[in-house]
């Protein structure tokens, strides 16, 4: 069986007999994930069957394309020299082993862009004339009510009953329900949710907005809004007992603070009603940081115990201490090693520092900078061994010493 390396943007994965299949999409659970908005949450699947590399589309909105032709749900071969696009982004494939070769990677042709748009319009059917707007990322759009946004894959809008975690707020004007598929999310992922507004009176609605909010003990009083979506723009006249379903997606920042003693997160929604009391609702969520967890797990594998990495307000930097094993503490006179983790654009920096002790006459420090995509894709054993070497150097325990 052959092997192949797949690349989508800055994300890569290798397929071989031990790992012959991968899901591709925006969902963090996909083996080859991308934040590219033209790619659906679960967009396509690539797999080896014998020596043939096959791709099948999973009902994506913008389609999967080989040499300008759409790929359906039936597996279609990918061959060296092909040009493959998932939505607007090229999929690069490099074969290793028996058959050497690569796919062709280039800019999206104008004619293919037009075909993708036509494909999307056919999939959406009665597509909304005004899409929900992400206020922190999208340009302003003209006023006017938006039709209901269709759901994942452009086939059918989900229902609130399909979402297990639900909270609501209400007053005499109406009820706003926030429904989420999960109560736990991780950095770089998306919060996939659903708003449902029920009017209890005849009211003029100006807008409905949903936000992803971080509350830090040392941060702003009302929290920091990391992402905001205008899910429906008014004004429009809501009739009594009218129910308005509104799917939404919010982007989680890449260097997010994890939930803990100083930090909590929520999804917050508002219905702005003209000349009446607004309606709000909030749903608490748990936030993980998968990068910090990898560092903690790797140190644990080396028997270096770390209790907490405390995030600064708005995340991006985390600090803490860890203790070497008892025999090393007594041998080298070290009680604690300071640790700082910091996001620097697409890089992740780890700083290890040993403070002055009876043994050292000066502080010792080492800075490690990782490409974030490579850091996340590296095997755990490789990260463990790398940290072992650097900590040994820091403590004068390298083989050469």
Beta-strand level of the residues, as a percent range? 35-45%
Decide which structural class fits the backbone.
Answer: mainly beta
Low-pLDDT segments: 124-132, 135-157
- Overall spatial form: flat
- As a percent range, the share of helical residues equals 10-25%
Secondary-structure topology with pairs:
Layout: E1 3-8, E2 11-15, E3 21-25, E4 32-33, E5 44-49, E6 52-57, E7 64-66, E8 69-71, E9 76-77, E10 84-86, E11 89-96, E12 101-102, H1 110-124, E13 133-134, E14 165-171, E15 174-180, E16 184-186, E17 190-199, E18 203-216, E19 224-238, E20 243-251, E21 263-273, E22 279-288, H2 290-301, E23 305-306, E24 310-311, E25 317-323, H3 326-332, E26 337-344, E27 347-354, E28 364-371, H4 372-377, H5 380-394
Parallel strand pairs: 3-4, 16-22
Antiparallel strand pairs: 1-2, 1-11, 3-5, 5-6, 6-9, 7-8, 7-10, 10-11, 11-12, 13-19, 14-15, 15-17, 17-20, 18-19, 18-21, 21-22, 23-25, 24-25, 25-26, 26-27, 27-28
Helix pairs in contact: 2-5
Structural write-up:
- The structure is a single chain.
- This protein is mainly beta and 401 residues long.
- It is built from five helices and 28 strands.
- Strands 1, 2, 7, 8, 10, 11 and 12 form a seven-stranded antiparallel beta sheet that branches. It has a six-stranded mixed beta sheet with strand order 13-19-18-21-22-16, with no helix packed on it. Strands 23, 24, 25, 26, 27 and 28 form a six-stranded antiparallel beta sheet that branches.
- Helix 2 crosses helix 5.
- The longest helix is centred in the first third of the chain and has 15 residues, at 110-124.
- It is flat, with a radius of gyration of 25 Å.
- Mean pLDDT is 81; it is low at 124-132 and 135-157.
């Amino acid at each position: 069986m052959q092997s192949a390396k797949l690349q989508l943007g800055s994300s890569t994965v290798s397929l071989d007999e031990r790992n012959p299949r991968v899901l591709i999409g925006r969902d963090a659970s996909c083996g080859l994930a991308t934040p590219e908005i033209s790619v659906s949450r679960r967009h396509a699947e690539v797999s080896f069957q014998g020596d043939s590399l096959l791709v099948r589309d999973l009902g994506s909105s913008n389609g999967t394309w080989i040499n300008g032709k759409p790929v359906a749900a039936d597996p279609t071969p990918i061959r060296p020299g092909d040009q493959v696009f998932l939505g607007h982004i090229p999929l690069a494939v490099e074969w290793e082993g028996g058959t050497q070769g690569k796919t062709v990677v280039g800019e999206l042709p104008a004619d293919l862009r037009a075909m993708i748009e036509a494909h999307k319009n056919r999939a959406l059917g009665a597509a909304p004339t005004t899409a929900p707007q992400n206020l922190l990322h999208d340009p302003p759009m003209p006023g006017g009510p938006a039709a209901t946004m269709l759901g994942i894959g452009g086939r059918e809008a989900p229902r609130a009953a399909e979402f297990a975690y639900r909270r609501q707020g209400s007053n005499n004007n109406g009820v706003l329900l926030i429904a989420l598929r999960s109560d736990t999310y991780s950095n770089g992922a998306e919060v996939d949710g659903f708003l449902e507004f029920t009017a209890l009176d005849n009211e003029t609605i100006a807008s409905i907005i949903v936000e992803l909010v971080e509350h830090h003990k040392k941060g702003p009083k009302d929290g920091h809004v990391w992402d905001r979506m205008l899910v429906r723009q008014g004004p429009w006249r809501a009739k009594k007992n009218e129910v308005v379903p509104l799917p939404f997606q919010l982007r989680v920042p890449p260097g997010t603070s994890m939930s803990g003693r100083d930090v909590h997160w929520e999804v917050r929604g508002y219905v702005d009603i003209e000349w009446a009391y607004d309606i709000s609702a909030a749903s608490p969520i748990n936030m993980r940081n998968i990068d910090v967890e990898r560092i903690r797990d790797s140190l644990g594998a080396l028997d270096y115990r770390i209790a907490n990495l405390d995030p600064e307000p708005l995340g991006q930097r985390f600090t803490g201490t860890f203790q070497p094993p008892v025999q090393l503490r007594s041998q080298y006179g070290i009680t604690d090693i300071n640790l700082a983790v910091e996001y620097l654009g697409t890089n992740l920096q780890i700083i290890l520092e040993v403070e002055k002790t009876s043994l050292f006459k000066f502080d010792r420090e080492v800075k490690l900078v990782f490409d974030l995509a490579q850091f996340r894709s590296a095997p755990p054993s490789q990260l463990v061994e790398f940290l072992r070497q650097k900590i040994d150097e820091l403590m004068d325990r390298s083989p050469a010493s």
